[in-house]
Design goal:
- This protein is of the alpha/beta class.
- It has one domain: Flavodoxin domain (Rossmann fold), CATH 3.40.50.
- The chain has helices at 17-25, 36-40, 48-57, 74-83, 125-128, 130-138, 157-162, and strands spanning 3-7, 31-35, 60-66, 101-107, 142-143, 147-149.
- Strands 1, 2, 3, 4, 5 and 6 form a six-stranded parallel sheet that branches.
- Keywords: Oxidoreductase.
């Protein structure tokens, strides 16, 4: 299985968890990793033909990002807007992603209990991530259960490196 990991962190070098994931996944055979900030630059401009070619080669697409203000960092939204185009991902002839898998790998700053109806954030992570599930359905992908690491910034670095 070919896996494409798209990492969307505004400053990957300053991240502990997302950088560790990116570095670890970059060494796995069959996995292609892309730091979207490095690819798109500060202007967050992407070449749809290049990105779409990578998507065609992948069986599974992983979107890896820190959860920012109940959403993704802007670079991932820019990538989605510029790459998942009509005629490629949806609409007439837009079948290039059919049958592929979509998975989210997300880090949050808050604890798991804060992401529920009676928590400080009022909604579950599944509810917050529902737009990605709908995107997967719209473009004919299989949406896999997300992997969410809560309280990422307060994790013990020794334990993180051993897991």
């Amino acid at each position: 299985m070919n896996t494409l990991v798209l990492t969307a962190h505004p400053n990957l070098a300053s991240s502990s968890v997302n950088r560790m994931w990116f570095n670890a996944l970059s060494t796995v055979e069959g996995v292609t990793t892309r730091d979207l900030m490095a690819v798109g630059g500060p202007e967050m401009q992407f070449d749809p033909a290049v990105e779409q070619a990578l998507l065609r080669e992948a069986d599974r697409i992983v979107l890896q990002f820190p959860f920012y203000w109940y959403s993704t960092p802007p670079v991932l939204k820019a990538w989605l807007d510029q790459v998942l185009l009509v005629g490629f991902a949806y609409g007439p002839g837009g079948t290039q992603l059919h049958g592929k898998e979509l998975m989210l790998v997300v880090s949050t700053g808050g604890p798991a209990e804060s992401y529920q109806s009676d928590g400080i954030n009022s909604f579950s992570m599944l509810e917050f991530l529902a737009p990605f599930q709908q995107t997967a359905l719209m473009v004919g992908m299989t949406y896999l259960p997300p992997f969410v690491l809560h309280s990422a910034m307060s994790r013990d670095r020794t334990r993180l490196n051993s897991q």
